[in-house]
Amino acid sequence: MMKRTLSAPILITGVGKRIGYALAKHLLAQGETVIGTYRSHYPSIDELNALGAILYQCDFYDKDELKTLVSELQKLPTLRAIIHNASDWLSDGKSTDGALDGMTQVMERMMQVHVHVPYLLNLSLESQLRAGAQGEIGAADIIHLTDYVAQKGSAKHIAYAASKAALENLTLSFAAKFAPEVKVNSIAPAMILFNPSDDDAYRQKTLAKAMLPKEAGNQEIIALVDYLLGSRYVTGRSHAVDGGRQLK
User: Fold this and answer.
1) Which residues are catalytic, by number?
2) Measured distance CA(192)–CA(25) in Å, rounded
3) Which of 29, 62, 165, 237 has the CA that lies 20 to 30 A from 230?
4) CA angle, corner 113, sides to 36 and 65, nearest 5?
């Protein structure tokens, strides 16, 4: 694969844990300039800060905080990539504070973090991305982290699945709108990492859903991000990382 020489920053949303955290550490280790957003403070944030990441705390459900973040990012002269990793996962009909009807609130929150924020950031930072389209690759990148359920649906997480499907559709529209200076792709993972609290029964049930019954790990996503950032000819596509679940 062609070696990348990236000078403009890479923006990653949701760097506090799991895939976002792993991606940020990987890219920092490659000598990239990483800008990260996070909602809640974890020890990982202190680690990324010590490694040189430029970090912004922002609650994507807070319009004022989001507006401030966009204003700050628009001061950048260039961006090499935006990786939309920030996510939330709520079951249908369960409100988070009891103040609103449960079903309405869940759908609003899922659409806000998975659709409205990527839509807003992509449009607001278009000039920075186009300015970052330089070097050997000749293009900047947008990568949307969607989900396996964008194509399959989910009986227990209908709003979540619908919002991830909408994010996948944004990939098509922005790929057409921003070409050829900006490549736009999505990554649709199924289960990548178990949580420490997941018991053996849950783990075995989950693994059995795939043709490749194993925990993928962050490296699978990192390798695909590296490929997409290094590609000169891939845009407007969704790339599944699901262990062959569609064959079950």
Assistant:
1) 160
2) 17
3) 165
4) 60
